[in-house]
Amino acid sequence: MNSKALYQKNNRWGWILSTPTILGILIFTVFPVIYSLYLSLTDCGYVPQNLNFVGLENYKWIFTDESLFFSSLGTSFLFTVLSTAVQTVLGFLMAYMLFSLKGKLQGFYRIILYLPNILPTAAVAVMWVNFFEPNYGLFDMLFKAFGWEPVQTWLTEGSKLQLICVIVVNTWKHVGMTMLIYFVAMNGINKEILESAQIDGANRIKTVIGIILPVTWYTTGINVLLSLIGGLKSYDLFMLLFDKTTVSMNVVGLYIFNTAFTDQNYGRATAMAFLLALITGIMTVVVNKVMKERN
């Protein structure tokens, strides 16, 4: 059998074996996207029946005063940028702490620090809501124990602490993944380079700034992108931490959710979802390009 016949045979078996995967992608990814795009061009309500084609009316509605899409998008951007900054810096510091530890102690802290990441969002929200509970919550009880005035307005509508609280909860839950990605990158650094720096008299700060930060810069780009995308999509924490009357924390993901399931307007909701996906895609390309240029 010549090489050409062998190649054609292998190619045929490759298509046969990949058929289930291709069908799964077409059925569960491609078709829902195309169908959702069609729904965004209709007046679809809660049930997709008796649909009327309205063209770009749902997309035009997004830019009207009636829509809160861009105001909620601004809240999402503020949350995303601040949360990304805190999560990236804290994740790097935690990873370097793990990297500096040795033996079983390193493994123990790695598990403990990553544990919040695998907890269900609902469980995390319930726990932190109890912490922020006025008068009887953990934080206000600690304030009373130290003789300070309890805050009582941690999650209250109009409070300046609302955004800080949700950033704290989001960081506590997701910083473990950022830490783990950094930790893997740090373990890939050639140990001889670090040993040479120590011999030359470099202290920890100089080692971090001169070697570890530049070598893990690409990893920083990955963590920033993951955090930015996750932040723009986030809605579950906001839905669970705040009640429906909390307008100031109406992020774009929650606004799309409420438009679809509360207002029962799938057409407008899917139109906003596609616009959000476009904005996220553009932002991802820009950030990735900037990080590659700096790299």
Helix content: over 70%
The mean pLDDT is 87
Looking at how many chains there are and whether they match, the oligomeric state comes to: single chain
Shape: globular
Main sheet summary: none
Low-confidence stretches: none
What is the CA–CA distance across the termini? 49 Å
Structural Rg: 24 Å
Q: Quick one: how many beta strands?
A: 0
Strand content: under 5%
Reading the helices and strands in chain order gives HHHHHHHHHHHHH
- The chain-level structural class is mainly alpha
Number of helices: 13
Give a quick set of tags describing it.
single chain, 295 residues, mainly alpha, 13 helices
Task: Tell me about this structure.
- It is a single chain.
- The protein is mainly α and 295 residues long.
- Helix content is 73%, strand content 0%.
- The chain is built from 13 helices and no strands.
- α3 packs across α12 and α12 packs antiparallel against α13.
- The longest helix has 37 residues.
- The radius of gyration is 24 Å and the shape is globular.
- The model has no long low-confidence stretch (mean pLDDT 87).
